[in-house]
Specification:
209 residues, alpha+beta, 2 domains, three-stranded mixed sheet, 5 helices
Length: 209
Amino acid sequence: MSDMVPQGWEVKKIGESKVVVLDGDRGSEYPKERDFSQNGYCLFLSAKNVTQNGFVFSDCSFISREKDEKLRKGRLDKFDIVITTRGTVGNIAFFDDSVSYEKIRINSGMAILRNEEKSISHIFLYHLLNSILIKNQIDFFTFGSAQPQLTIGTLNSIYLRIPPLAEQKKIASILTSVDQVIEKTESEISKLQDLKKGMMQQLLTQGIG
């Protein structure tokens, strides 16, 4: 894998870096259906919240402070990255400053990637994990046909290609700008689709004259 890497870049497995892979809490205190509410102390992520396009918070479930304090693992820190590991595998979301919630926990079908490597930019790591280079490795390591899964061990076996920090920041800046253009374009497309629906309703019921 390292043969085609640009000069000055480093190749290492996640498990060989200081990017720590953390599991959620699966113990006896794991929340049951009755523990969830539409409002509460801590956002408890579901598969609906971690999509191919990152976090989506249109449908959220919360747990109380009491339940949150009983859970040992799975709490997000700022700049953590969430990856889905069961069912729909490989969706990535980034807990950056754009997320309005402060207290968030993952469910049992997710893992946390916590970047403690000073030589790796948080936002670069997020873009890297969303790249086809990583997606192909995730597809390779995913197992199970009825319910696809990705284990903590296999996540640690994924190779990262890491350029010097200055280059990481430039790459991340370019990709973030592209994401912003895509988001704006998708918003405009949505508005045009709504406009078209209204026009169709009028034209197909009242005509042009």
